[in-house]
Write a structure and sequence with these properties.
There is one protein chain. By secondary structure, the chain is α+β, with helices and mostly antiparallel strands. Helix content is 36%, strand content 9%. It has a two-stranded antiparallel sheet. The chain is globular and about 50 Å long.
Length: 138
């Protein structure tokens, strides 16, 4: 990897598209359908390897996991910390009223339509201190 002395290093921020089968597994888990935890962990690992390779092949310098392990940035808090559950208020985007086509794209996303944003329901604490560690070190 270049250190950046001769050029700007490249990266990206945020979530990258997840494979369809991984999305289906994550939706099932989020909806309370039993999912084999070992199979989900294995598929997440495969998806991370796939997305890391794609980033390397594209010439990205600062590679990340593409958030493959998270069903949504807005919901995974309940998987990492205690004190969250149920659902909170639905997001309302007043600024989209003037842009109906954009609103249709935002709210037409199948992931968004299934998203149940958790509410804070109790004291906040760390659910699993090992969760943030790379899968290879667990």
């Amino acid at each position: 990897m270049a250190l950046g002395a001769e050029r700007f290093l490249t990266t990206h921020t945020g979530s990258l598209p997840r494979p369809d089968d991984l999305i289906r597994m994550m939706f099932a888990k989020e909806e309370g359908v039993p999912v084999d935890p070992a199979a989900l962990t294995a598929r997440i690992g495969e998806a991370v390897a796939e997305v890391v390779k794609k980033q390397a092949d594209a010439g990205i310098d600062l590679i990340n996991d593409g958030e493959m392990s998270k069903p949504s940035y807005a919901t995974y808090v309940k998987d990492r910390v205690t004190g969250f559950g149920g659902t909170s208020n639905t997001f309302v985007y007043q600024d989209l009223a003037e842009f109906p086509r954009l609103a249709q794209r935002v709210f037409g996303d199948p992931g968004r339509s299934r998203r149940k944003t958790p509410a804070c329901t109790g004291p906040i604490g760390i659910a699993d201190p090992a969760a943030p560690r790379p899968m290879s070190s667990i």
